[in-house]
Amino acid sequence: MTIDDLMNMAPVIPVLVLGDELDPAALAETLVAAGLPVIEVTLRTPWALDALHTMAGVTGAIVGAGTVRDPKMLDEAIDAGAKFIVAPGLTEPLGRAAIASGVPFLPGIATAGDIMRGLDMGLTRFKFFPAEASGGRPALKALSGPFPELRFCPTGGIRLENAPDWLALEAVSCVGGTWIAGPEDRDLAAIGARARAATEVG
Fold first, then answer.
1. Dihedral sign from CA coordinates of 66, 72, 74, 80
2. Which of 18, 26, 70, 151 has its CA 20 to 30 A from that of 41?
3. Catalytic status, residue 127
């Protein structure tokens, strides 16, 4: 499975910062049933790797690791069962390690320099992060102009209300949805409702 396959599977990739409030398997089952099978578990909490491992065992779930910052975290995520890797930025050590691993890789960019560093490594798919704080849709439209072959997954400040505007950009394949489920959420029914609504935005 390529990074394009993952980015085109659904309009929204849930971006999860997990606490210990929810059963990870039940959460993954809820998201898959709602139509969002590609799930990013950010490595921001003590529970993240264990949750990723559990969710990766759920039928239909394609679970990746986010907030991967260095090769050590990359190895830990892959060992836990991550099927793809998302990074908040791009460094050469992480980029080279991710490419060598063969795992689909989506590094974060916010500037033309970031993009050119990625292109030097052969990368053409990026997370635009933090999307709203980095200038929003006008910024990404301007950035994508000199690089028409690139595709992006904007993340950061995206909401159900503005996701359609982001997805309308030619360079955008999908968006990261931090609003689907937060670390304090306990209500799987509400998460499922938000996830189902997210499938309709594309």
1. negative
2. 151
3. yes
Q: 10 Å Cβ neighbour count for 2?
A: 10
* Catalytic option among 21, 29, 76, 127: 127
- Give residue-wise pLDDT tens across range 159-183: 999 999 999 999 999 999 999 998 8
Catalytic, out of 29, 40, 83, 132: 40
Alpha-carbon span 193 to 33, nearest angstrom: 11
pLDDT, tens only, 4-18? 999 999 999 999 999
Does residue 72 contact residue 79 with C-beta atoms inside 8 Å? Answer: no
- CATH assignment of the domain containing 194: 3.20.20.70
- Domain assignment of residue 16, given as a range: 3-198
Rounded distance, CA 76 to CA 150, Å? 28
Residues in Cβ contact with 38 at an 8 Å cutoff, skipping those fewer than 6 apart: 6, 9, 10, 13, 62, 64, 84
Classified as helix, coil or strand, 45 is coil
Q: How far apart, in whole angstroms, are the C-alpha atoms of residue 60 and residue 38?
A: 9
**What is the pTM assigned to this prediction?**
0.97
Total structural domains in the chain?
1
| 92 noted as active-site residue | no
Residues 6 or more apart whose CB falls under 8 angstroms from that of 68 comprise: 43, 74, 77, 85, 86, 87, 94, 98
Helix, strand, coil % over all residues of the chain, rounded to 5:
40, 15, 45
Bond before 71 cis per omega within 30 degrees: no
